[in-house]
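Data availability (excerpt). The following record was deposited with the supplementary files.
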Amino acid sequence: MYIASRPSACPGLLRIVPALDGGICRIKLNGGSISTFQAEAVAGAAERFAKGVIEATNRANLQIRGIGCEHAALIDSLLAVGLGPQTAAGDDVRNLMLSPSAGIDRQMLFDTRLLAERILATVQTNARFHDLSAKFAVLLDGGEALAMLEHPHDLWLSAVEQDNEKWLAFGLGGCPTDAPHSAVRLADGHALVVAVLDLFLELARPDQTRMRHLLADYPVAGFLERLAERVSLKSIKGWRRSFNCEVLHIGAHPQAAADHLYIGAVPPLGRLNPTMLRGAAQLAAEFGDASLRFTPWQSLLVPNIRTEHVAEVIRRLQQLGLSCEASQPLSRLIACTGSNGCGKGLADTKADALQLAALLQQQGRALSVHLSGCPRSCAAAHTAPVTLLAVTTGHYDLYFREAGQPGFGALHARNLTIEAVATLLDAHSRSPLDA
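Predicted structure:
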């Protein structure tokens, strides 16, 4: 079942891609969820066949870095615990993102997990959909309070309730915080996804691998007109998905079920070692429902913890080296692999992020900052409030997110050391204009 690597290919479970620090294997998790048994298998594979580095990704998946030559043995160990696709060719297209709190969120309008299972089964077993790009992505949003709404997707669906009926508003490209293009009945969600994917494959040229590429040449109105021939659409006017500014992926937060909470924990810069992953899995088995959920903020949730056990679980997560406090600067920083593991990286972003976290800690600041070793921005699919773009070893250009500005936002300063960045961020945070 092993799929050989090819130039510039995305890593997958069956395709291990080389990097400076060894091979990379990406394990796609249905809905970001993994059982404790599967987590143990990932930890064991990272120890036996790699250098013990496990990364949480910004699409709520896991990847193992530093893999040696035993590719087939690593893959077989993960397939044995059910972490593989239903078909070998279906691995690349398992790009369906849910809320990390799907099914347990107090604000959800419906439990997205059954619909997600149906969509994933369809894209994996229908050979036609295997022609989609490995980056073609779908978001299914059930209206949860904990939801990543800033990642652009080729197709997004978001639950909305109007006239005592549930609908799925949807957009072609962009994010749920954009105005929707139309809506379908909740019961037609699967049919909509199939129709959009079919129509995209019919209309797109080989070089148009993403929805935004197609819509640059093909009018949205024309796409919707043809879509309406396949599934019944409803106009949604004046509705926008509300954006929750609370940091809900870190710390303890109530679930829909009384006396149950989930606990969000952040591994340093998105990286776990086998001890961390095993320890979190053991806590999930002892106090939760024997599962972990990974998030697009490169963190994890331990769900279904009874109120009386929350303090103990947090204490033990912190002993493992995971942060459960949003006030800790390191829990708010994102950094790509950097020059230590990526040939395109211009700086050691991981080491520089640790230095920046220490400086922000001294200032008493916990800011959301993204360090990128090159313009590709692999670590963050969205525009972060602050981005540092490496220009050379230890030096970065500083950008602030600004409405209407594409890319990283507005350039604020060039060629800064980490010390200079910390000083500027402190001054910027104190500015009354930014209060």
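Summary of structural features: The two ends are 54 Å apart (CA to CA).
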